[in-house]
Amino acid sequence: MRHCIATVCLSGPLEDKLAAAAGAGFGGVEIFEPDLIGSPLSPAAVAARARELGLEIALYQPFRDFEAVPEERLRRNLRRAEAKFEVMHELDVSTMLVCSSVDPEAVDDDALASEQLARLADAAERHGFRIAYEALAWGRHVNEYDHAWRIVQAADHPALGLCLDSFHVLSRRTSLSTIDAIDAEKLFFLQLADAPRLGMDVLQWSRHYRCFPGQGVFPLADFTRRVLDRGYSGPLSLEVFNDVFRQADPDRMATDARRSLLVLEEEIDGLRSSMPPAARLLGYAFVELGVGPASAADTQGQLHALGFAQVAAHRSKPVALWQQNDVRLLLNAGAAPGAGIAAIAVESADPGACARRAQALLAPVLDRSRGPGEADLAAVGAPDGTSVFFCTTASRWPSDTWLSDFEPVLATGGVKPTGIRGIDHIALAQPFDAFDEAALFYRSVLGLSPLDSVELAAPAGLVRSRAVVNDTGEVRLVLNVPLLGDSAGEQLRLQHIALSCEDIFATARAMQARGLRPLAVPANYYDDLEARHALDPSLSASLRELDLLLERTDCGDFLHLYTATIDGRVFFEVVQRPPGYTGYGAANAPVRMAAQRAAAPDRPLAATNGRRE
Amino acid sequence: MRHCIATVCLSGPLEDKLAAAAGAGFGGVEIFEPDLIGSPLSPAAVAARARELGLEIALYQPFRDFEAVPEERLRRNLRRAEAKFEVMHELDVSTMLVCSSVDPEAVDDDALASEQLARLADAAERHGFRIAYEALAWGRHVNEYDHAWRIVQAADHPALGLCLDSFHVLSRRTSLSTIDAIDAEKLFFLQLADAPRLGMDVLQWSRHYRCFPGQGVFPLADFTRRVLDRGYSGPLSLEVFNDVFRQADPDRMATDARRSLLVLEEEIDGLRSSMPPAARLLGYAFVELGVGPASAADTQGQLHALGFAQVAAHRSKPVALWQQNDVRLLLNAGAAPGAGIAAIAVESADPGACARRAQALLAPVLDRSRGPGEADLAAVGAPDGTSVFFCTTASRWPSDTWLSDFEPVLATGGVKPTGIRGIDHIALAQPFDAFDEAALFYRSVLGLSPLDSVELAAPAGLVRSRAVVNDTGEVRLVLNVPLLGDSAGEQLRLQHIALSCEDIFATARAMQARGLRPLAVPANYYDDLEARHALDPSLSASLRELDLLLERTDCGDFLHLYTATIDGRVFFEVVQRPPGYTGYGAANAPVRMAAQRAAAPDRPLAATNGRRE
Question: Which residues of chain B form CATH 3.10.180.10?
């Protein structure tokens, strides 16, 4: 299918939007009228630019409120349409979108609407153009696609057809059954948008919160399949009004948009899809952490206290391998201060297939400089800049894997493990404008499933948090973003690595014996915990002693502790997860963030945000 | 009345919230439970800190979902309440808030609710405490205050009364008449919050969009007066959940909050208020502009082309006075680059009264360094850092006014005016977290009326814009803010000064003759204008020739043009306003912003927003 995108989805002046769309591999665009009117490029110059870029101009929407108006008003509308037809010749676009009227002057008269749209179609036909009529979800009299279809049927004009916009249909939960009755040649255009389910009026919802397919909750694969099954052969065209997207980098957003259509097509095509399928992930091969030189000793001390030992050094890079059982952490202690989690490596039975899928889904493939004889690791860049590696770690070492790039170091004495068995999850702070993009990236590229977003109260504002997990729970990522831009202070840049254990009391004691000083949890927290639950006094005493947090769940107690923050950026969590529990102790997150804030009182609370001091 | 504020209104750890509340002159606080639980301070230490700061702890809300539950659950709730009563002793607070239950287990049984609340009140009474019951607007069975009142009446317990929260009452448009029937001694507490009218579910509305009194649309003066008329003698206490406020500087927010209560009391008290009334404003005395040295020549050239002449120089500061008719602009050409509009001076018949009112409303009074013999100008700082001066400019110069600080300069030749008659409005970019604060500041301190907010599409995102005006239209300010944080690029820092004229065609021609090069308006704009309106061809030709924008209004044509942007920060607008028109040509703002973007293509489109490159 051809992929198109409406220019309103992207930030910047029209020429940047066109370049971004072409760069992401779109075959065409819908020109959003204000983008054209605000452009210094003439319509002919826009058309020429689009042609150079290999873009078709697939749709133009120059005005609204056309039909079911008094005759005098209709004449004005037709006159205006004639002027826009001239623009369409210059733009080299043949389909004009007309949305159902929201004008208070419009009357509730389907016959009049049909007749007037037919007159517009007559005029369009004389130019070789056609009119696609669309029911806005908040149209004054026509707000369901099946109503628009009755009007188009009654008009019975070859140059008049329907535009279906998934938002207008799915936001109102209109039955899809009428789609099966629409003649294929009357399906002039298909606009796609997803959205989160929000309890607000549909106009605000549509204008501010649409998102790309797969980023919301609408059943877009069903909807689109149904339209395609009728024989629709036009483009799949994205029309997304989103406050965040429209201020983000247009090249990145266009890539995100295009990826959403590739994923949608894969869903629609099912087994017939040519997309390399997501390979099964088996957990983490390693996580690479970068800290500034000033934090090197602290980090090494913390890893030691957590029960890790340095077992190897990279042959060509200043990177050390720390290990406990099969949990491997790479530490680059000469990184830029605050670098944080530089890379995540997931275990896969078929890293090559993972990389091919990532590439097909437009993930940026990273060039790796490697020494002679070093393993060639497939890696892609995630939206927040973290590198994601795909690898297979042999159980026996050395072997022809990434581990062979490391040289064993002499053990400095027997290191007794503390009971860390795996990586439970990794939490990554996302750039404000990459949250939806990141969820789709991990869902599509790694085959993870996004869970519901939650909002967490940090001392300096709300944080939105969303987990993406694989079906076995072996790979879990938590994506965090300040609810409102990046102005809520340093605290929200925090990342963490959560390590799992089976007996957190024993593990915490072993760690404290090795010198770990966990994040201090306020006594008030335990007082409240005791007030809420009838805690066994010895349990309560242990929690207090070990700075453990508890969330009582239907699956049992979720227990966790945190370390101090390294480099103002990264900390560790140690968790004991009850079987079946799929959360992350969200109820305790505000306490954790308050405790972190108390531990770093000099950190700026809030950015000055453009204020003049 | 005592003024209180809930700690949830403010950003930061609990000790910062207490300090901010005390600093702004609040007499007490409500302790929001998560703030206490996340604090390393014990309840007794919190109480001690509050005492030191002169703050009463007026209310504590330790849990929800108390009433109308099965007996076993009730026993757990009572046990928990006992633990919280102990905390209340330490906190030195005597009133506990209990909101109507949202628990799915709660049953719809008023008698049971009454009975169980009476049992809680019994327990509270033994401690010398009392329970304030509040209907949440989204309570499962009890969601109107009159319903809560029936339950409290039926319980008939001396330690059980009502808490009224304006949001829960006014968001549902519940009739206020039952307030008149509530016994004064049963009005235990009054929480105040305003909100904009939003078409969304009430829980989301409440949790994210509340604001301080006077910043929304609720009739808070009526509501509060009604409660006071019943004999309520407790504090006026703000409980505002707002995504923006909770990440802003707590000291500033606390001042804004306190100002809102001062304004509310003035409204309630009417003529009996001790607040110095707002003096009548008569327009602008001057506007002071600061530009970097590199932009000095450009700015002077632009002022010259606009028809201004430099008529005087400040006696002790590097500031020049430029004038045309009675419009006076001060230019500091040695300011920091991008300084922009440093000061606005409003004409007042009684500058002293203005300053006293500003001070009473907690506006920061600015220290002015002035030379010997120079006028003492009263000035306060606006939320965005702009200085606001109050002055009286004598018609004859020199005299004992601010003008006497200036030394006339020799005219460099006859300057022919271009027809500028006044300042139509001044547009100021606001810090993201100061938008509501700014509207309340100008409304209360200067006595201006806020008009409705509008959203404008800039190339790099949406901008929210709100005008505040006096009743004669002689003082108009337009406050602009990026809709989502400060991440939407440099463009949104733009400020401008709009100059008014009576014949914009003549004025624009005179300016062009003097060398003005207006902001280039795209031809597409005029093509669309012609398509929309049957424009007279000669009018259309003049608009194109002079780069004039037109908005056809019910009052006549609003015509305007823009200059190039100086210093990346400030530009001028020239407007011809039809009598009776109260807008600002919002329909043309996107075209203006697109044209500005086209004129400065190197300006960053969007901030990287924390992304790692």
Answer: 281-599
Which residues in B lie closer than 8 A to residue A437 (C-beta atoms)? Answer: none
Whether A275 shows a pLDDT value over 80: the answer reads yes
Query: Is there a contact between A605 and B16 if contact means CB atoms under 8 Å apart?
Result: yes
pLDDT-derived band at A609 (thresholds 50, 70, 90) equals: very low
CA A517, A521, A522, A527 torsion-angle sign: negative
Q: Do A489 and B200 touch (CB under 8 A)?
A: no
What does the alpha-carbon distance between residue B451 and residue B439 come to, in Å, rounded to a whole number?
A: 9
**With the C-alpha atoms ordered A71, A77, A80, A84, is the resulting torsion angle positive or negative?**
negative
Q: Please check whether residue A378 is in contact with residue A387, taking contact to mean a CB–CB distance below 8 angstroms.
A: no
Q: Which residue has the tokens 């407007």?
A: B575
Task: Give residue A610's pLDDT band: very low, low, confident or very high (50, 70, 90).
Answer: very low
Q: Taking CB atoms and an 8 Å limit, are B459 and A527 in contact across chains?
A: no
| Structure confidence by residue, pLDDT tens digits, A535-553 | 999 999 999 999 999 999 9
Q: Where in chain B is the domain with CATH 3.20.20.150?
A: 3-272
Closest by Cβ to A528, choosing from B37, B384, B590? B37
**A485 with B487: Cβ contact below 8 A:** yes
CA-based R_g, chain B, Å: 28
Task: Please state the pTM of the whole predicted model.
Answer: 0.94
CATH architecture of the domain A3-272 equals Alpha-Beta Barrel (3.20)
Does residue B263 come out as left (phi exceeding 0), alpha (psi in the -120 to 50 range) or beta? alpha
Reference A558, options A537, A597, A589; nearest CA is A589
Q: Is A578 on the interface with B (CB under 8 A)?
A: no
Mutation site for A-interface testing, chosen from B63, B433, B481, B569 by largest number of A Cβ within 10 Å: B433
Q: Whole-angstrom Cα distance, residue A468 to residue A475?
A: 8
Please say whether the dihedral angle defined by the alpha carbons of residues A554, A557, A563 and A564, taken in this order, is positive or negative: positive
Residue among A204, A246, A522 minimizing CB distance to B38: A522
pLDDT tens digits, one per residue of B51-84 = 999 999 999 999 889 999 999 999 999 999 999 9
Q: In chain A, which among 69-128 make CB contacts under 8 A with chain B?
A: 76, 79-80, 83-84, 87
ipTM: 0.93
Task: Kindly state whether A522 is in contact with chain B, defined as any CB-CB distance less than 8 angstroms.
Answer: yes
Within 8 A of B79 by CB-CB distance, chain A residues are 531, 534
CA quadruple B156, B160, B162, B168: dihedral positive or negative?
negative
Q: Which two tokens stand for residue B393?
A: 């400019």
Cβ-defined contact of A40 to B487 (cutoff 8 Å): no
In CATH, what is the architecture of A281-599? Roll (3.10)
Task: Classify strands A236-238 and A187-192 as parallel, antiparallel or unpaired.
Answer: parallel
Task: Summarize pLDDT for A463-504 with one digit per residue, the tens.
Answer: 999 999 999 999 999 999 988 865 545 556 899 999 999 999
